[in-house]
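Narrative summary of target 7.
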Amino acid sequence: MRILIQLLFLCLAPSLFSQGFQVNFQGQKQQGMGCAGTALPRDASSLFYNPGSAVFLNENSVIVGGTPVFANVLFIDSASNGAYRTNSPIGTPFSIYGMFQAKSSAKLKFGIAINTPFGSTIQYEDGWIGRFALTRLSLKAIFIQPTFAYRISDNIGIGGGLVISKGSVNLQKDLPIQDANGVYSHAELAGKALGIGYNFGIHLNANKRLNIGLDYRSKINMKVNDGEVTFNVPNSLSANFPNGNFTSSLPLPSVLTLGAALKLNRSIKFVVDVNAVGWKVYDTLSFDYKQNTSSLSDTKSARCYKNTFAFRGGMEWVALRCYSKSASNEIMVVTRIPLHELLVRCGGGFGISPVQNGYVTPETPDANRAYGTLGLGYNFNQKTGIDLSLYYTKVKRADTNIETQISGTYTTIAWCPGISFYYRW
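Modeled conformation, tokenized:
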């Protein structure tokens, strides 16, 4: 029984922090270009991608957007060759940005960024072979980032912000304990987490065609206090499975991004980002339970994540642009806004999984992944507009988990259409 209970709680953190549940949907313009944009100031979403570049946007603006996630997992068991699927609800990552300046062309700007870089819900069909490891997992992590940006010179900008992360988790699984009617016992774990970090970025206009950006998002240690665990077990075993509280500390990794943006001509721009993600901080998972029994004791487990890289790139093409009569020639820094504009975007990327062999779980059926994106943008006028994006990926990974001995092949397919609206003045 003790091992079973330990396995229950070991399911929590990998689900929240692995690449499989890391959400890279923080701006529709960037999503259309392969989720890259550290060196290209396009709108207030730069507060997330690189606050140092936000100062080169001469505007006040508000953006609201979301990217529904339609994802399903197919698991093929190695021993029985049985097939099991998820019936997960639609994911709802969102972003809200506001950027403000005291006067036109101000060197100092302020902003607020609210987004969901981590979180998802995965739910397997009833009776699936891994139900003793997981039946449902719902995760939410919301980042709130007050931000500043300052233009040191005509070519250099810096910016940074405090990141307040608020999260929650609800994990459910069956236990291999049956009552008199043959119904399996059930366990549910729920908790709220809070962490503090920061984001800092530098932007350089190297020349009229080339921009370079460097952004660092710090590690955030998410602390779970007074989480609640609830067991539905036969009365004869209730003393061994007491409902109660737990505490834990779970790390979100640091991310260092180097990006470049190249203006090929007046209509075409290329972007590329390289992310170095500090997953190695997630080496051990531990839980401290308020009430211990012979079946429930404090736990420590090696997770052995590794640092990884991700590579993202894309392009933006201005298919239609109409300026007012007073407009001047466009340069890389955004000094004015076209009256009407239609933009077409595309891109893709490749990410290396931090999950090593032997540690793949039903919560994180993760693997090295390639993906592709498309995007459209349209300015209705000089103040309002809309951006659309579409993301697709297919991930496949075969593994045998060291602790649970769940062995098989996971295939995940995800479609993610996104939309945002903006208003600027």
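The first strand starts at residue 61 and ends at 66.
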